[in-house]
Amino acid sequence: MALGSSAPEILLSIIEIVGNGFKAGDLGPGTIVGSAAFNLFCISAICVFAVGQATKRIEMYRVFMVTAFFGTFAYIWVFLVLIVITPNVVDVWEAILTLLFFIVLVVISYAVDAEIWKKKRATDLHEELELAQQDGGKEDDKPEKLSSEINKWASTFSLTHEDTNADVVDAVPHLDTVRRWTRTISQTYPSLSEEDQAKILAYRVNRRLSHDRLYYRIRAVRQLSSSWRKSEEEEVQKLEKLESTDGGNKKKTLVEFSARIYRVDSTDETVSLKIVRKGNMDSKFTVNYSTVNGLAKKDLNFLFKSETLQFSPGELHKTINIQLINAANWRPNDVFYVHLKIQDEDEDTKVRLGACNVARVKMPDESGMMLGGPVVEFVKPNYIVKENAGFARSFVTRRGGKLKESLRVHYETEDVTAKQGEDYTSVKDGIITFEGQEYEKYIDIDIIDDKMDEKDEAFIVELMKVGAGEATIGTRRKTTITIISDDNVLKNITNVHKLMGHYMRQLRPGKATWKEQILNAVSVNAGDLANATVSDCILHALAFPWKFAFAFLPPPTIFYGYPCFVVALVAIGFVTAVVGDVASIFGCMVGLKDAVTAITLVALGTSLPDTFASKIAAESDDTADNAVGNVTGSNSVNVFLGLGLPWVIASLYWASKGESFRVDAGDLGFSVTVFMICSVLFLVVLVLRRKLALFGQGELGGPFGPKTLSTLFFVGLWITYVALSIWNMYRVDHK
């Protein structure tokens, strides 16, 4: 990653030295040292300040120490070569050794990262995976644990793919894993479609997967050139704000009648119906009800009524009264209806009508009943419910005359083939209460959807006893509820799995085809016009020539990305040559030396993508590795390759002619010395931030005061380096 991000500086140095007839120039080496200074001081300062009160630490600290040592040693080596060993001359062996230090850096960094001195690495990995599975296994069925499930999967994925590039692997979870997540997310966000569920899962998985520096660099460049689609992330963030049914979020408000049927007799003058609310009690909404003819007609059996009711926060129920016609000719099974509708609700309120949103006001036919007191029983001996319905509703009726007082009926559930806690939520000593003219009420049992395509399962709901009074339990004291598997469950899971893969490929860079590259290049925000701002359009206009030209590069999906890599390097070399010429011309026009232009304007320009990439990584990652840890590695590569490679080319060229390759150590030597001193001070402060509680014991973030002081100190180091370097250049000229 360091090699790829340092390509402009390296190519600039090579192009300059070849273009100068294999003579050393100021632009290439100056840019390398200047870019290293900006990376180390300014980017680190931005990352320290970008993180909030919570601190973030470098996890791969051994690797960081190796790259930090080599980052400092690289500039010490340049100082020794140009001033101590062979002043103002670079011999072939010195150039080759400088280049070989890059290989030494890579080998040692890999050895420290892989911990090759540990012989039981495979066993350690196996133990880590088992621990991860044990830690997460107890929480799989809890809706609020979706994030921890995804974190566990992402950690396991990173462990099992640590020898490969996890971003290149098609990191779509297995179908069984998606099935489990879909079950959880369906309970958390029950109103979402398959597509929205897939979007949320893809976004969360992509966010939790470990990303390397290349990912953040690509994202930063695309944001700078108005090529990053904002809609995916913003849309998912909006979806995640929807009200859910778990305890940690707002519940939906459900409103319906307390009973399906209300009983009337020919002697009744009014009928009272109760409208109840369930779920979120904090909402405010308005409902409307109206009477509708059935066999019983308005003005013959009842008076028409339509009214609006407002539920205030905390209000559980409202009772409505409908006037009946005196001495009306009521016959058995005469019925009229009362319809309930939601009229008005708050913007942030999710109010839904329950299944009993139509009440039946009926004179029941009880001619077949034997003499005796009231009888309570189930309406039907069995009910069928789909597994994804959320709950099973069974109806209980009470027959035999009016109630003198409330009637409490006790019930409980019993397993048959369904298991409590796995297939449904059991109820022990549940109570259903008949009040007033309520004739047929309902019992709701929660159904647990495990998203498995399985056989039908059943359980029993049994009426155990009635409260004080003359009522008894009838012959249908039990009802069997059969849970049938949703015919589309496997199809739904498969669709979510496919859609999740599609959205993950959209969120991951490097998956576009040739056509998509060109279409994205000519559009603001890669086609996301709805979220485009004025600044996005301006950035797109400025970057359009480059975006359109480079859209014709081979996409990374062709031949494992090798054509893209080779052609992109050629394109970077071309752009670098243009930048070098423009920088020299600009410096000449305003009277700046090439060395001054190199350590300021060109260095800032080449480091701009790294700046935004590190800031995004600092804000998004849980660690400081991608934000700060790679800066020292990049600086080492800048010297060993950016100076070593052109030195090897030039020294071999002059050696073939029997001459020495001369490099003026004046400006570069002083600049390297100042940078070396500043970098040591920087590393001392960074170690102190990690060790001292004053800074929060982390490289990034921490308390506002110490964090601000660290930021100002790092920026001050960069200003000191630039000021002293420029002063020395013009001091030498003046002499």
Automatic annotation (TrEMBL):
Q: Which UniProt keywords apply?
A: Antiport, Calcium, Calcium transport, Calmodulin-binding, Cell membrane, Glycoprotein, Ion transport, Membrane, Metal-binding, Repeat, Signal, Sodium, Sodium transport, Transmembrane, Transmembrane helix, Transport
Annotated GO biological process? cell communication
Taking the record's annotation, the residue ranges forming a coiled coil are none
Q: Name one GO cellular component term.
A: plasma membrane
Name the reaction it catalyses.
Ca(2+)(in) + 3 Na(+)(out) = Ca(2+)(out) + 3 Na(+)(in)
Q: How does it sit in the membrane?
A: Multi-pass membrane protein
Show the stretches that span the lipid bilayer.
32-51, 63-86, 92-112, 557-579, 637-656, 668-688, 708-730
Q: What is its subcellular localisation?
A: Cell membrane
Q: Which residues form the Calx-beta domain?
A: 242-341, 359-464
What molecular function does GO assign, one term? Answer: calcium:sodium antiporter activity
A Pfam cross-reference name: Calx-beta
Primary subcellular site in the record, as a coarse category: membrane
Cross-referenced SUPFAM superfamilies, in alphabetical order? CalX-like
Q: Which domain of life is it from?
A: Eukaryota
Q: Which PANTHER family match?
A: CALX-BETA DOMAIN-CONTAINING PROTEIN, SODIUM/CALCIUM EXCHANGER
The text of the family note is: Belongs to the Ca(2+):cation antiporter (CaCA) (TC 2.A.19) family. SLC8 subfamily.
Protein name as catalogued: Calx-beta domain-containing protein
UniProt organism field: Caenorhabditis briggsae
Species lineage = Eukaryota, Metazoa, Ecdysozoa, Nematoda, Chromadorea
